[in-house]
Specification:
The complex is a heterodimer. By secondary structure, chain A is α+β, with helices and mostly antiparallel strands. Chain A is built from 8 helices and 19 strands. Helices cover 20% and strands 33% of the residues of chain A. Chain A has 3 domains: 146 residues, 2-Layer Sandwich (Gyrase A, domain 2); 85 residues, Aminomethyltransferase beta-barrel domains (Alpha-Beta Plaits), CATH 3.30.70; 74 residues, Aminomethyltransferase beta-barrel domains (Elongation Factor Tu (Ef-tu), domain 3), CATH 2.40.30.110. Chain B is an alpha+beta fold. Chain B has one domain: OB fold (Dihydrolipoamide Acetyltransferase, E2P), CATH 2.40.50. Chain B has 4 helices and 9 strands. Chain B starts with 8 loop residues before the first strand and ends with a helix. Classes of the chains: A alpha+beta, B alpha+beta. The interface between A and B is medium-sized, with 18 and 14 residues.
Chain lengths: 372, 127
Amino acid sequence: MEDNLLKTCLYDKHVALGAQMSPFGGFIMPIQYTGIVDEHNSVRHHAGMFDVSHMGEIFISGPDAERFVNHIFSNNISGIPDGKILYGMLLYPEGTVVDDLLVYKEFKPDSYLLVVNASNIAKDYAWICAQKEGYDVEVVNESDSWGEIALQGPEAEKFAVEVLGIQSLSGLGFYTYCECQWTGRTGVAERMIISRTGYTGEDGFEIYASHEAVNDIWDKLLEAGVLPCGLGCRDTLRFEAGLPLYGHELSDDITPLEAGLGMFAKIREKEEFIGKDALIAQKEAGLTRKIVGIELQDKAIPRAGYPVEIEGRQVGVVTTGYRSISTDRSVCVAMVEKPYTELGTPVEIRIRKKVFPGIVTKKRFYETNYKK
Amino acid sequence: MAKTVDGLYYSESHEWVKVEGNVALVGITDFAQHSMGDLSYVDMPEVDDQLEAGEEFGAVESVKAASDLYSPVSGTVIEINEELEDSPELLNQDAYANWIMKVDMSNPAELESLMDASAYDAMCQGN
């Protein structure tokens, strides 16, 4: 089993740091180094860095690139400026989700970078290629040649400017990026992409570069005192910030409307995209279920797969849950039948042999601190 | 290296038993707390619960995962350690100084099927 797992370019560093390694999305990834709680708090209050080299990079270019990306992507990229980034989904015609992703408008005409989930790289690439008939575009999966580090937290900007030596990063706006050069040990200047994005609810940057450059940057950040953080706290951080994880709050069985992410599917603005008709039909018919937050009164911890009940009848299922580290409350997000999704609705969650009372809340449990 | 304490009984599912007369104090081993990491919740049984040996009686939970607890002996729960409700981290600090429940045993002969410290240690080494 382990033999089939891929290693990121930073694998040896994780092992040397004594990380606890586990499979995730087809890769063997660090779950924690010093501990999830320490790493979580470091990102909330200082800074932390994550190896996210498992993420996929798919480039789309050509005369029809804008029209094509708008065809497969739920958000609207018409006329967005170079360096702008949009979040959205690839949808099936049924309106359910192939993947959620970021689209980067490159600093050259008719060129886009799609950053997709590790577990979906092959599926996404095949799906995108299968849609391109009639469009003059080239689709290239460069996932194997890029590494990526996410530098996150209120002190991320300070470290990015100091360690990378790029003053202009302090002026980089949220959901935009810049292209720079990195000259490391090899002495050769290499392409580097730095975006003001992340998956923690804090300010921060995501840095894309070659495997060698990413190793170099990782070492420099480590020397500067940035704490390495694993996927364990990446999940607790994104969960508190109300951000979805594919396979939990989004899937090939869930639409963006059900996930409460309708604002990223432009069914009014856009003339056409795959899945649009299904979303319009779902909206007109009315949703039958929706993702909500639930807070328990007790300390018991709701976890993915646990039933949500009302008077002994199951009305939903937990998609992610934790004893929230930043708020010290037992909270979860859950897919719940529509009649029980109003804020303040009392529900119960079955945890092993017992049921625990909770109430429906917003699905963001922590105030995000993005740089505007 | 996980610690063991002589004179206790150990189960394959990583609980320990300390016998005081007919009462069994039950906790989790140092090996168990170490492999779970920082504990954030202990799901306790209730006083007067009737347990069979091998029956689930609660769970210990870390940030990432829940791990079920199995009673090493049959009997009636006569007391639970309420301190753990607010301070589950006590199990991380000293797993053997903090029992989870006390059971009035209905069949103390069951203790014979549990391991002693050296047998348990050997099992953990083998893992």
